[in-house]
Amino acid sequence: MRAIELKNVSKIYKNGVKALAGVSLTVKQGEFIAVMGQSGSGKSTLLQIAGLLDDCTSGQIIINGNGVSRLNKNVLADIRMKSLGFVFQSFHLDTHLKAYENIMVPMLINAEYKNKSAMKERAIQLAETVGLTNRIEHYPGELSGGEQQRVAIARALANNPDFILADEPTGNLDSKNEIIIFEELKRLSISGKGVLVVSHNDAVKDYADRVLTMKDGILEHTDEK
Ligand SMILES: Nc1ncnc2c1ncn2[C@@H]1O[C@H](COP(=O)(O)OP(=O)(O)OP(=O)(O)O)[C@@H](O)[C@H]1O
Ligand SMILES: [Mg+2]
């Protein structure tokens, strides 16, 4: 099964904060899951651990059937590059690169892509799928927040990942752009990607297949919808 599975995952930071206290969650391909919860409840920690950006203290992470706990850093980086795409609140675009060049960045570090003009063509196609056809030559500073986030989504899709993980993707956007971003993420889940969004934006409930609530490091599996 293609899925991200977290089994009884706990995270205690070095300073002693217990950010996750036995979280279990499965994100399957084609599914849009939203995790909501108050500030400090552990949402970003959950996303970082599900996305192999940080280690858990105990529990298991299984991606597409493979347990990741014993894998070395290079293998983890390879899984991250090929299977996971990330979207963040503050976009994290390179301000010195044009929109299409930002979208190309993950392809440049993927040895599977070798031909630069093919990469550019793919980047332009991805820009089109997120509705940015007329903005590909723009630098991030020349784009609206919503457009920048769409560049970030296109970049997350660069290596055709199975999953998109988004941390507060509409945190810096107005309500019109919020809808555009959630609709885009919804479209991706319908096209077969597994989408995990952590957010305190209530609007996400209209798009998610399942809405879970994080409270003090515990994930409540009662569906709020
Ligand atoms: N790197 C870190 N080192 C130590 N403690 C941390 C670290 N990152 C987060 N924490 C603590 O872990 C808890 C959970 O933090 P987390 O960032 O996951 O919350 P969150 O739900 O994403 O909050 P927000 O909605 O404000 O983004 C908080 O108490 C926070 O202070
Ligand atoms: Mg957070």
TrEMBL record:
Molecular function, one GO term: ATP binding
Listed PROSITE patterns: ABC_TRANSPORTER_1, ABC_TRANSPORTER_2
Domain of life where this protein originates: Bacteria
Keyword ATP-binding: yes
ABC transporter domain sequence ranges: 4-225
InterPro entries in the record: AAA+_ATPase, ABC_transporter-like_ATP-bd, ABC_transporter-like_CS, ABC_transpr_LolD-like, MacB-like_ATP-bd, P-loop_NTPase
Coiled-coil ranges from the UniProt annotation: none
Keywords: ATP-binding, Nucleotide-binding, Transport
Name of the protein in question: ABC transporter ATP-binding protein
Organism (species): Ruminococcoides intestinale
